[in-house]
Design brief:
Helix content: 40-55%
Distance between the termini: 94 Å
Number of strands: 14
CATH class of the largest domain: Alpha Beta
CATH superfamily of the largest domain: P-loop containing nucleotide triphosphate hydrolases
Length: 490
């Protein structure tokens, strides 16, 4: 292990900037066709190639996109493109390269100790710094300031450079440095970054010092038309080499991969709760419906965290039922989606019309639209069958309800009770098997319940909320019940 400057010199080590490190290691990975951003889904042909071009160009980067588009995750993964270990002068707060020192501390130490200057090593995992931009961030926090306590303790004049307390950016020399939510940084603070980005140096309190910092900057921001709190000042944008637009997944399958990857589902939950792919697709459909809803502010965006939180809640809802019923295994049901409502209400920013409706009603509306959309993926649209009553595949089901059949799907039903209830509806299971490839009964039951909820969304059945579940009845009988209720009150 190299521990002195003499050993480092004899090893043939050559100084390399962080941007050169990123570039050379990226080239090696591209030549070997190795994955660079593990776990990033849906950006293979859009965002990732643009990031790679920016790295090859040695640019600082601004990732611009709505919330929940993996901007910070991408920045953190860039650490994998750094050299595994780099040397620095032991004790230097600026992590000076031993062959290219920039601080007075390192320069003086090398002059004093020469070949015996102690060398330490920094792993690439330590070469990442991150700061969330908030209005209270000061120039002193980021760049540095004179420390009067240090001056007093060391009995130094304020003209002595040793009284400087370096801020977060100088202390991130030879690091990847990320500033999240850049528009939230006050304009005067953004101005302080001009020299660092253009000339690569800092100025502190009028000291005549030049610190040619070696930093790879990555900024993240929401589009300016959304962030009413502030914006990126034009001269700063001009100094950022590449601005890359991020986006949400283009289809449900990509979104489902992200949700499954990021959700915190324990091994015990996976063992207890069986989740169909279609249940996960329905979760994703809710998010897609929210992004296009007239009640939701599209400029705010709908984060992938909605799907992740909703999926975790969904599994927990089924888990709770299994625990209450003392069952060793259970399956996700449509009725379990009542548990995802809290995950929706806290994740969407409503426009005026949505606020008037209320977050709870909007969440139920999104769930209903998602059920309808997934229903249409597998089964014929009831609206297109109006003129073909004799060929209507839903006729046996609807006739059963017309003849007085009712279906109460309670949240706490045991699995065998739930199965018996759905199988009592004529033609329901047969319809599932005709239009889907489900082979296991538990998957068939999920689709069977989807049909019931889907018919209710098309107003072919009446769906009433109970204290502990939902009741499904024939539409006309429900109308008569209301009329009878009204006449009884007169």
């Amino acid at each position: 292990m190299i521990t002195t400057l003499a050993q480092l010199l004899s090893s043939g080590y050559q100084p390399k900037t962080i941007k050169d490190e990123l570039r050379s290691n990226l080239i090696l990975k591209l030549q070997k066709h190795e994955s660079i951003f593990e776990g990033i889904v849906g950006y293979e042909d859009t965002v990732i190639p643009e990031i790679e071009r920016a790295i090859l160009s040695k640019h600082n980067i601004n990732l611009l996109g709505l919330r929940g588009q993996a901007k910070t995750k991408i920045a953190r993964l860039m650490v994998n493109l750094l050299d595994e270990n780099v040397p620095y002068v032991t004790g230097s707060v600026l992590y000076d390269d031993p062959l290219k020192p920039i601080s007075n501390f390192a320069i003086d130490l090398i002059k004093e100790m020469g070949d015996n200057t102690p060398i330490s090593w920094m792993h690439r995992s330590e070469r990442y710094a991150e700061k969330l931009a908030t209005p209270d961030v000061s120039v002193a926090d980021l760049i540095g300031d004179v420390d009067p306590i240090k001056a007093a303790n060391l009995k130094l004049s304020f003209a002595d450079e040793r009284v400087i307390h370096y801020g977060l950016i100088p202390r991130s020399n030879r690091h990847i440095f990320v500033i999240n939510e850049l528009p939230d940084l006050q304009a005067r603070i953004q101005v302080a970054l001009f020299n660092i980005l253009q000339e690569g140096d800092v100025q502190i309190r009028g000291f005549k010092l030049r610190l040619p910092l070696d930093i790879q900057f990555i900024f993240t921001a929401n589009p300016e038309d959304y962030t009413n709190r502030g914006s990126i000042v034009t001269p700063l944008k001009d100094r950022i080499g590449s601005q890359i637009l991020t986006h949400y997944p283009s289809d449900i399958s990509q979104s489902a991969i992200i949700t499954k990857q990021e959700s915190k589902i324990s091994g015990a939950q996976k063992k207890l709760v069986h989740t169909t792919n279609e249940a996960l697709n329905l979760v994703e459909q809710i998010t897609f419906e929210a992004r296009s809803s007239e009640y939701v502010d599209s400029k705010s965006g709908v984060s992938a965290r909605l799907s992740i939180s909703a999926y975790e809640n969904l599994v927990s809802t089924a888990e709770r039922r299994a625990i209450i019923n003392n069952e060793h295994v259970t399956s996700i049901r449509i009725t379990d989606f009542v548990g995802v409502i809290p995950a929706i209400t806290g994740k969407v920013e409503l426009v005026y019309e949505g606020e008037q409706e209320g977050a709870q009603i909007v969440a139920n509306h999104l769930l209903g639209k998602a059920i309808k959309a997934r229903f249409n993926e597998y089964f014929p649209s009831p609206e297109k069958l109006k003129k073909k009553a004799q060929d209507n595949p839903y006729k046996p089901i609807l006739d059963w309800f017309t003849n007085g059949g009712t279906l109460d799907l309670l949240h706490t039903l045991k699995d065998d009770e739930f199965s018996k209830l759905l199988q009592t509806v004529p033609g329901l299971i047969e319809l599932v098997r005709k239009h889907t490839e489900s082979k296991e009964l538990r998957d068939t039951l999920f689709f069977a319940e989807l049909i019931i909820h889907g018919l209710a969304e098309y107003a072919k059945l009446t769906k009433s909320a109970l204290v502990k579940g939902f009741a499904f009845k024939d539409t006309f009988s429900s109308v008569f019940d209301m009329n009878n209720l009204g006449s009884g009150m007169n």
